[in-house]
Design brief:
Strands 1, 2, 3, 4, 5, 6, 7, 8, 9, 10, 11 and 12 form a twelve-stranded mixed beta sheet that branches. The radius of gyration is 17 Å and the shape is globular. The chain is mainly β.
């Protein structure tokens, strides 16, 4: 038992200290956001598929992420494998997204005492955007990303769903996330809902970076990686 505890501790320390990096290639042209990733520019983007799922040991559905950037915008694309897309419509607006199959992007400033910002985007193209501060129970779900600086669309297909969007660099600067260097601190996550035998739904948490191998928690600084903008 002591040996297993030591291994678990070492794994946890390695996960928390490791900084993962995704290289965001630059595009010369604005990407047309359609919700299905049809713009040819996406063919040149690096693809990230190394999403992890240590909290439940079987049936890991595939998740792929792509990003590109221009002089004015950051573009992102999620390609999600999902055999059962769950998107309840309860009339709660963006709050319906948090009970739905969704992908997420969190951004934080280098100074972790400042707010971080969350985009939780479901298979219908709904988004719960919020801001918060680390280690405080103060998530503000009434906060909204500046309206003209964020575009989001989604589509569904036989294999699952696609979420595509753009974020203006001007808004990232204003929020203190981007300082005209090549670094964006970002967390990439997925919430995968499934039907249980009792008729209720459960959720599987999927993440690019694992902050804690024992319990999923995305609202901590060490669950973030780096999106490095290629100059």
């Amino acid at each position: 038992m002591k040996y297993l505890l030591i291994l678990a501790l070492l794994f946890c320390l390695s996960c928390s200290s490791q900084t993962k990096t995704y290289l965001v290639k630059k595009t010369d042209n604005a990407i047309i956001v359609t919700g299905n990733g049809s713009d040819k520019a996406w063919e040149d983007a690096n693809i990230l598929t190394a999403f992890l799922y240590p909290w439940q040991s079987k049936n890991l559905p595939a998740t792929a992420f792509k990003a590109l950037w221009s002089d004015t915008h950051l573009y992102f694309l999620y390609l999600v494998e999902d055999s059962e897309i769950i998107t309840p419509e309860r009339g709660l607006g963006e709050l319906d997204a948090v009970k739905s199959d969704r992908v997420e992007i969190f951004f934080k400033a280098a100074d972790e005492t400042k707010p971080y910002f969350s985009l939780e985007m479901d298979a219908l193209g709904r988004c719960l955007d919020s801001d918060a501060q680390f280690f405080k129970n103060n998530i503000d779900i009434d906060w909204n990303w500046p309206k003209d600086d964020f575009v989001l669309k989604a589509s569904q297909n036989e294999e699952g769903y696609t979420v595509e969007g753009s974020i203006s660099l001007a808004s990232l600067r204003k929020l203190g996330i981007y300082q005209d260097d090549e670094i964006l601190n970002a967390g990439l996550y997925r919430g995968e809902y499934y039907s249980k035998e009792d008729g209720k739904t459960g959720i599987k948490w999927i993440s690019w970076v694992i902050a804690n191998p024992d319990k999923p928690n995305f609202h901590v600084p060490n669950s973030f990686g780096i999106l490095k903008l290629e100059k």
